[in-house]
Amino acid sequence: MTENEMTSNESTESTSTAEAAASSPDPSGDPLVEQSIDVEGTNETTGTTGKPVIESRDLNVFYGETQALQDVNLAIPEKQVTAMIGPSGCGKSTFLRCINRMNDLIDAARVEGDLYFEGKNVYDDDVDPVALRRRIGMVFQHPNPFPKSIYDNVAYGLQIQNQTENLDEKVETALKRAALWDEVKDQLDKSALDLSGGQQQRLCIARAIAVDPDVILMDEPASALDPIATSKIEDLIEELAEEYTVVIVTHNMQQAARISDKTAVFLTGGELVEFDDTDKIFENPDSQRVEDYITGKFG
Ligand SMILES: Nc1ncnc2c1ncn2[C@@H]1O[C@H](COP(=O)(O)OP(=O)(O)OP(=O)(O)O)[C@@H](O)[C@H]1O
């Protein structure tokens, strides 16, 4: 999908929150942003190496009087797994929802600052959040398949986009990528609600990737699953990062350490305290507060 498609005017939801937040110029003409995205080296402001695909600049989010994120500057690299960790209420989910503008759906939410996806501020007036979410898919904590067949769950997004050519093949490919095909190939007409929780979550991942997004956001995708189902999801996430940029919120520090390349540590008050290679965060963080959190001294 091109940027033009992302900015089509066919939005099906209110953009009032976005209009309030979209105060900065298009970054393509903003020398500050051009300087900030150093494709080969390390970004001085946000600490990321490699090509950033998502970049927040002084991002602040409020729910009414409550400030959930404070001046967050973070650049997320392409085709890697980036984990967001931190104690409850520190703003991890809020940050994730900013990326594909899911916070637009929360009346009390107000976003200030900038969030760029491939160099385009997603809070610009001309961005259609529905088109944006086709490129930035999301998987939630509790598996939420539609009350339809396994096949229809995966085909749905393609059908509403009129991408029905070779539909069977596309459904099969998505189910294979989500490591579910072998378990469901003989029962595609069965209700998705009859699958186990872990299978339902992999079906939701298949549904998200069927429309071929660039980024997959995952909000605690394994927290409702048993250890075996969790292990399958973790393996799958690592495989997905070969093709997609994956951003995952998790409460499980071992999980972050196992599967992510980069880790962002948010602490109370919505502050991004440290962002670095996952090994560095878990073995030798710069911040004493991060070390205390990682070692269980608080949080
Ligand atoms: N819809 C909402 N309305 C009002 N306040 C909200 C809403 N969503 C989140 N908040 C508040 O914003 C802050 C950050 O919440 P958020 O859910 O982003 O944190 P989190 O780190 O993901 O937490 P958890 O790990 O418990 O899921 C919290 O103080 C929370 O109470």
UniProtKB/TrEMBL annotation:
GO molecular function: ATP binding; ATP hydrolysis activity; phosphate transmembrane transporter activity
UniProt biased composition (Low complexity): 1-24, 40-50
Region of interest (Disordered), ranges: 1-52
Short name of any one Pfam family annotated for the protein: ABC_tran
GO aspect biological process, one term: phosphate ion transmembrane transport
Protein name: Phosphate ABC transporter ATP-binding protein
PANTHER family found in the cross-reference section: ABC TRANSPORTER I FAMILY MEMBER 17
Annotated coiled-coil segments of the chain: none
GO terms under cellular component: membrane
Keywords of the record: ATP-binding, Cell membrane, Membrane, Nucleotide-binding, Transport
Family matches, as InterPro entries: AAA+_ATPase (IPR003593), ABC_transporter-like_ATP-bd (IPR003439), ABC_transporter-like_CS (IPR017871), P-loop_NTPase (IPR027417), PstB-like (IPR005670)
Occurrences of domain ABC transporter (ranges): 54-294
UniProt-listed Gene3D superfamilies: P-loop containing nucleotide triphosphate hydrolases (3.40.50.300)
PROSITE patterns the record matches: ABC_TRANSPORTER_1, ABC_TRANSPORTER_2
